[in-house]
Each structure stands twice: as structure tokens, then as C-alpha cells.
Write a structure and sequence with these properties.
The complex is a heterodimer of chains A (396) and B (267).
Chain A lengths: L3 H18 L3 E13 L11 E15 L4 E12 L7 E12 L3 E8 L32 E10 L2 E8 L26 E2 L9 E10 L2 E11 L4 E4 L6 E5 L1 E13 L2 E12 L3 E18 L2 E12 L11 E10 L7 E9 L5 E11 L4 E9 L8 H4 L5 E9 L1
Chain B lengths: L1 H17 L14 H13 L4 E11 L5 E11 L7 E8 L7 E5 L7 E6 L4 E5 L15 H4 L7 E8 L7 E8 L6 E9 L5 E8 L4 E12 L5 E10 L5 E11 L10 H6 L2
Antiparallel strand pairs in B: 1-2, 1-13, 2-3, 3-4, 4-5, 5-6, 7-8, 8-9, 9-10, 10-11, 11-12, 12-13
Classes of the chains: A mainly beta (396), B mainly beta (267).
Chain lengths: 396, 267
């Protein structure tokens, strides 16, 4: 039986062999993060302050004009609030090699698919590390073999994913959870092979002039579990089924416009058959004053499961604005909100801002307000979890 | 590059008629002398095949405070089109691993992709923002992108000594209305066709910046490169020094080292 530990040990062995031959580069990031919640939680998760330390070192060995790269990137978070949010992961422990028409990636790695900003609908290879951030942008390292064939008709990729990573969920004291709490220990699978089901994906990506696109197909363990109450009703237990999905991403980049669409058609054991899309644009007023860029983002989110989608994003509009000063400190600000079409109200609104202090230090501010989430959606269960977060990061 | 073939044909035609064997300065009509200078610069740079170098930018504000950016820049000469380039940032440390891929075209918009290491995301970006600052420096994107002859119209101003030899002063007007400049005045040395200085005029027609090219060095493949460029902004009082080091030509690089896969591998 393949376990995550075995995969890690195997990869580490290969990696240490390689690093004895060539000398690598050690870099990384250490962050101190303070998150303050404006209210006590709705599920007796009443603590309002979460102090975290996050360490993410990276060791890279590259040779042959960067055509061969070994990367080791562990990740550790200690959270004062939630012991489930305190966790360790291996984000990357992989070999990436390039030959004339072939690219090969073996090991634990991360792969991003998609073009839109408000939701990463088609991004399916890696599991979401949900305790990291409610936006779902953080991902767990995924064991994989990824082979790409590159020619004048684009990139043709195959992914073999031999081991499944389970989604992380907040613990009893944590925020961004419903009630009762999710017990990750009791996850179960519909497939007889459990977390050792061999998942696979195929992807074709290409571009012509201003048009970039990708067509993908995935078949395997559904990244999105269904949560069922246990027998005595004290906890939710994740159940993972199998799913097949086809997806399309497309971006047309013309003058100051980025026109984007992601479309997903999914057949899932546990979530039924449905299709969903995120379609929109980003327009940038470039260099409006002293190098400052001001961008506007619009995206329409649709999921034909309607309320059953549970996300509260089944028929909604995302509006956002991005300001980049392009100054020596790289100041950036992103504000956004998601407006539900059915209720006509703002689901949530968020802010992210960052500025460099010097060569090695940087601060980041982040805030998320659950203004009036749609009733029955997951967001409604966490509507008391508005927060403001400040972090100071050291990069070396 | 398109121009290479054009120049070759032109040179052959001139050769067969004039019999001098060289496209001499005397044969160039006054009206086309500016363009002729631009072509000499371009032709002088033909055949570099590819180039890998380390660049260090030092940004200095009015108060004299400094900050640094370090990057590796790889570029590839492409037959019949503009150059391809891959820029990998190593400093400031928070942008380490960020990489920028650009396919330059003479008149069509450039194709550009950005690799964001935190999300492992490759993002196609608009190349429309030519006039914006590159990494907060006094260099605009259009100042550091590949200089194709077709991107400007030219006018000859006067002869003047440049970098210690007889030279030329020409004026070039960007064809693209999105350019941040109304014109650039370029000082060129007539012996080796090296640029000594460029003055940039903003959209209001006022002098905005001056770029000087210093410490020229000739490499084994006969190509000249300035190892220290100084850009001064006359309006803001800020300046940026760009130091080149470790310049290598004719490395083992192919088109595959300049695609989106290479962007993901960039370190």
C-alpha cells in the first residue's frame, strides 16, 4: 500500500542522491501572522485572536541550463487558535526535467490550471488546504507523474496521481467551519481502493496570437468531499467519491482587456452531474499617474446545481479592483466583493494589500467580511467570522 | 529578424548597381539617413544567436535611498521575428522565482507571460502597458524590450562625436500610440554602431529621462555591450543604474528554453 510517508521517503532519497552531486540554493519565507476576528464564532469557537508562525523554506538544485530541477519545499504553520490549522505539509519534493520534446515531473508537486480570479473552478490536480485560507487558493502537495509532449500544436500532458490527499478542515476552536465540526480522522471512500485510487488527467494547452486556451479531462477521486453527520450527530465525516470532469479555459488578451472564461462539466458520485462557469474580464488603466495601474475585474459565476452547490456562488457576480503603484516598494491593493443575483446582496467583501519594507521584509494586510451570505449556503454558517489579518514576512 | 533578410537583399541590390560593395553613407539620401543609422545599429547586433546575463538594478530616489533588483536575463534571436526573452528575478527576495517570458514582434503586440511562484501560476499578461515602470525603476517596459527597427520612424539630426569616434544624432518617434514618449534622441557612434546616449521626451514633449551607456566591452563574438547604464529622470529626480555582468553569448539554448514550460522551471 502506498502511503504519503512512503512517497515522501522515496522522493527524499532520490533528492538527497541528486544533491550530493550538485550544489543547490536555499531560500524561503518566514511569516508572523495576526488574525483578529470581529465577533465570537457561531459554534462556540469564541476565541477572537489567531497568532500564527509560518515557515516555508525551499531548497532548489538546478542544472543543464535549468532544464533539470530538483525542488524541496516543506511547509509548517503553527496556529495559536486551532490545532487543526497547525499543520505540516510537503508542498514540493519533485524532479522536473526537460528534454527536446518532453517535460517530465515526478514527485510531490503543485500544478495550477485556470485563468479567472474569483474562483478556481477547473483547478483540480491539488487538494485545497482549506485551513490556510477560506479562499481555497492554498493547496496541498500532490504526488504525481506528469509527462508533457511539446510540439507546434501545443502542450499535451498526462498526469498520473497515485495517492489522494484529503482536504484540511478547521478544528473545534477554529473558524470557517459549520456545525458540528468535521472529523478528518474518519474520512471514508466510495472507491474500494480508498486513497490509493490511481487518478489521471489529460490536458492540451496552446495559444495562437492573443488567444490562450486549455482543454482538460480528469477522472479519479473527487477533490470535493461530501460531509455526513456521524451516528451520534457529534461530528461531520468527509466521504470521497469518484468523479469525471471535462473543462475548458480560455483567455483573450487584447490591448488593455483580458477576457476570460472557465467552463466545467462534472459527473460526480456524490455531487451529481452539473456544469459551472466563471466568465468575465479584467480591464487595466495602465500608468494612469506616475506608473500606477488601476484594474477592474468582473466575473460571473454560475453553477447549475443552484442552491445545492452549497457554496452560495451558484449565480453571482464578482466585482473587484486592483491598484498597483509599481513603485520601489511594490505596493498593491485588491478589493473585491461577490454579489448574489438571487438576493441582490453582497455575499462577502474582501481586501488584500501588500507592500515591501526592504530587500527582505514585507507586510501584508488581509480582510474578509461576510456581509449578507445567502441563507442555506456554507457562508451563512461562517458569517460571524469576519476578520482582519496583518502579517510580516521575512524572505531570504 | 525580418530586417536581416531585407538588409541583405538591399545590400545585394546596391552592390550590383554601385559596384562599391558597401552600402556607403554617401549613397543614402538625406531623408533616409536616420533610418539608415537605425539599420546599421540593428545589423551590427545581428547574429548574437543568444545571450545570457545577470543584471543588477539600483534604484535611487531623490533623497538618495537605494533599493536593488537582481535578475537573470536570457534572450534568443529569432529568424524573421523579434527576439524572445526570459527574465528570472532573484531579488528583492519576495519576488524571487517570478519569471517573465516575452516574445517581441516588430509591429504586432508582444506576447507576454508571467510565472507567479506562490501559486505556480502562468498568467498571460497584456503587453499594452509599455510606458509603465519596470519593477519600480526608471526604466519603462518599452526601454528594456527588444528594439526592433520597425517600432520607430526616424530623422537624421546631425553628425557629432559619440564614444570617442565620429557619430550621428538621430531622432526616433515611436510608431505605437501607447508609447510613453513623443520622441527619443539617440547618439550613435559611427565606427561600431554603439548607442552612447538616449534622451526621452514625454507625451507633453518635455524632456523626461536621459539614458547613458557606459563601460562598453567587446566580446569574443565581436559584439559590443555596455556594462553600465544610467537612467536619470529629470522630472522626478530619481535614477536607476543597470549593471550587466557575466554576459555570455552562443549558449546551448533553443526555442524550448523560451516557452511556458521553461517559465515554470525558471530558477
Amino acid at each position: 500500500m502506498l502511503t504519503f510517508q512512503k512517497i515522501v521517503i522515496l522522493c527524499l532519497a532520490c533528492w538527497s542522491l541528486a544533491t550530493t552531486v550538485v550544489c543547490g540554493e536555499f531560500s524561503g519565507e518566514l511569516s508572523f501572522e495576526t488574525r483578529g476576528y470581529f465577533h465570537e464564532g457561531a459554534h462556540e469557537n469564541n476565541d477572537r485572536v489567531d497568532l500564527s508562525i509560518i515557515l516555508q523554506p525551499e531548497y532548489v538544485v538546478a542544472w543543464d541550463e535549468d532544464r533539470k530541477v530538483f525542488t524541496f519545499e516543506p511547509f509548517v504553520r503553527y496556529s495559536s487558535l486551532d490545532k487543526e490549522r497547525s499543520h505540516v505539509d510537503i508542498r514540493e519534493l519533485s524532479f522536473l526535467g526537460s528534454w527536446e520534446l518532453i517535460e517530465l515531473r515526478v514527485g510531490i508537486s503543485k500544478v495550477f490550471w485556470g485563468v479567472t480570479e474569483s474562483q478556481h473552478l477547473v483547478d483540480v490536480i491539488n487538494q485545497t488546504d482549506l485551513v490556510e485560507s477560506p479562499d481555497g487558493e492554498d493547496k496541498l502537495g500532490q504526488p504525481m507523474i506528469n509527462i508533457a509532449y511539446v510540439n507546434e500544436f501545443g502542450n499535451f500532458e498526462i498526469f498520473l496521481l497515485p495517492y489522494f490527499r484529503e482536504r484540511t478542515f478547521s478544528g473545534i476552536d477554529g473558524r470557517f467551519r459549520g456545525s458540528p465540526v468535521v472529523n478528518m480522522e474518519n474520512a471514508s471512500y466510495l472507491s474500494g481502493s480508498g486513497n490509493n485510487h490511481l487518478d489521471a488527467a489529460f490536458r492540451w494547452s496552446h495559444y495562437i496570437d492573443e488567444l490562450d486556451w486549455a482543454l482538460s479531462y480528469f477522472e479519479g477521486t473527487d477533490r470535493e468531499p461530501r460531509l455526513y453527520k456521524n451516528a451520534d450527530g457529534t461530528a461531520l465525516e468527509p466521504v470521497y467519491g469518484l468523479a469525471r470532469q471535462a473543462s475548458l479555459e480560455i483567455q483573450y488578451t487584447v490591448s488593455d482587456w483580458l477576457l476570460k472564461a472557465e467552463v466545467l462539466s462534472k459527473h460526480s458520485d456524490l455531487h451529481g452531474n452539473y456544469w459551472a462557469t466563471v466568465t468575465g474580464f479584467e480591464y487595466t488603466f495602465a500608468n494612469v499617474h506616475r506608473g500606477m495601474d488601476v484594474g477592474f475585474l468582473y466575473e460571473y459565476l454560475y453553477d447549475d446545481r443552484k442552491e445545492l452547490a452549497g457554496s452560495g456562488l451558484d449565480n453571482a457576480t464578482f466585482l473587484g479592483s486592483r491598484v498597483a503603484l509599481n513603485d520601489e516598494n511594490g505596493f498593491e491593493l485588491l478589493v473585491g466583493s461577490i454579489i448574489d443575483h438571487q438576493t441582490g446582496r453582497i455575499n462577502n467583501a474582501f481586501l488584500e494589500s501588500t507592500r515591501r519594507i526592504n530587500e527582505n521584509w514585507k507586510w501584508t494586510l488581509e480582510s474578509n467580511f461576510l456581509v449578507s451570505p445567502k441563507s442555506g449556503s456554507f457562508l451563512e454558517q461562517v458569517k460571524r467570522d469576519d476578520y482582519l489579518q496583518a502579517s510580516l514576512s521575512f524572505f531570504w | 529578424m525580418k530586417l536581416f533578410q531585407l538588409n541583405t537583399i538591399l545590400a545585394l541590390v546596391v552592390f550590383s548597381f554601385s559596384g562599391t560593395g558597401v552600402l556607403g553613407q554617401e549613397t543614402v539620401p538625406e531623408k533616409e539617413r536616420g533610418l539608415w543609422v537605425a539599420r546599421q545599429i540593428d545589423q551590427e547586433d545581428q547574429g548574437f544567436v543568444n545571450q545570457v546575463s545577470e543584471a543588477t538594478m539600483t534604484l535611487r530616489n531623490k533623497q538618495g535611498q537605494e533599493s536593488t533588483r537582481r535578475m537573470t536575463i536570457k534572450s534568443l534571436e529569432v529568424d524573421g521575428d523579434g527576439d524572445k526573452s526570459l527574465t528570472i528575478f532573484s531579488s528583492p527576495r519576495d519576488v524571487k522565482g517570478t519569471a517573465f517570458l516575452s516574445f517581441t514582434h516588430a509591429l504586432e503586440p508582444d506576447d507576454q507571460w508571467l510565472f507567479l511562484p506562490a501559486l505556480k501560476r502562468v498568467k498571460r499578461i497584456s503587453s499594452n502597458n509599455k510606458s509603465g515602470p519596470f519593477m519600480g525603476s526608471e526604466f519603462a517596459y518599452e526601454d528594456i524590450s527588444s528594439q526592433e527597427v520597425e517600432k520607430y520612424s526616424y530623422e537624421y539630426i546631425r553628425e557629432e562625436a559619440v564614444l570617442g569616434s565620429e557619430g550621428h544624432v538621430i531622432e526616433r518617434v515611436p510608431v505605437d500610440p501607447k508609447s510613453g514618449y513623443t520622441k527619443q534622441v539617440v547618439w550613435v557612434d559611427g565606427a561600431n554602431w554603439r548607442i552612447g546616449k538616449i534622451e526621452f521626451y514625454d507625451r507633453k514633449g518635455e524632456k523626461l529621462k536621459t539614458l547613458t551607456f557606459n563601460d562598453y566591452k567587446q566580446y569574443p563574438n565581436k559584439k559590443w555591450r555596455s556594462n553600465r547604464m544610467e537612467m536619470t529622470n529629470h522630472q522626478s529626480g530619481k535614477s536607476t543604474q543597470l549593471i550587466w555582468s557575466d554576459i555570455k553569448f552562443e549558449q546551448d539554448l533553443t526555442e524550448r528554453d523560451f516557452d511556458q514550460n521553461a517559465l515554470k522551471r525558471a530558477r
